[in-house]
């Protein structure tokens, strides 16, 4: 068994967090990740509701016994209703990512809940450290969904040298090789998102799971066109990594107006709807149950690392 700060502090069997993924990670996915020994996290998107959080947390706990909840910090600055809903579920971990978590960390800690924060730069680390978070996630630019621009490995090395807080790695980790690499480097575990996106327990249209199986590692694009088309007011510094399709080929890198993006966008059409996914999409070759994916990654990493034990 791979024992790290993450497993001993959270009482897990494997050092893996199922990534909070807005629109894709609900209670079924999170529950199966937890059942496999990791901690599955609900992705509470800005447009979700307190009722959704309560219902999906219940599903996750029923399946897997424990759950984590991921919120988008910048969206709490306008309306923090979802924070209260998340705290009310007494999750094992709350992640506050994309923005300064300082105004919210004390409320989570007062409820006896640990706080993680995904960061994309060294400056972000300083902000999260000052805010008093318990664990840092180095989220590299190859990650699926919204992320920064620095690659996972350079960022992870930089952050490990700069903090005494436990650090997890996120972005591009889809097999035991990836998990072994970041643990050997000093990470206490990994946050895995894209590798789970073809699993039947994910939420979202069928075409999203098919697209993840079909796409290769060179088929993603880092872009803001989907946010602009869908009126998602993400701060400019965070683009999202998605599978390229006709929509991105038509509009990414152009200066068309948001109205044109909106009229060209169609969530019912795989060629024009968004499928957020990272470069690890090239490692997903079939739709496998999420629990199998998690167990396999952990077993393979343990075998690889045991060569040096
Ligand atoms: C579809 C999708 C949605 C995501 N939504 C969120 C989110 O709501 N909150 C968050 O903190 N991170 C979100 N992320 C980022 C993940 O938490 C995580 O950093 C990422 O999936 C790790 O990289 P990987 O995709 O290469 O495994 C999302 C990622 C994906 C693929």
TrEMBL record:
The keyword Disulfide bond does not apply. This is Nitronate monooxygenase. It comes from the Bacteria. Keywords: Flavoprotein, FMN, Monooxygenase, Oxidoreductase. One of its GO terms (molecular function) is monooxygenase activity. CDD domains: NPD_like. Pfam families: NMO (PF03060). InterPro entries: Aldolase_TIM (IPR013785), NMO (IPR004136). The lineage of its organism: Bacteria, Bacillati, Actinomycetota, Actinomycetes, Mycobacteriales. The keyword Flavoprotein applies.
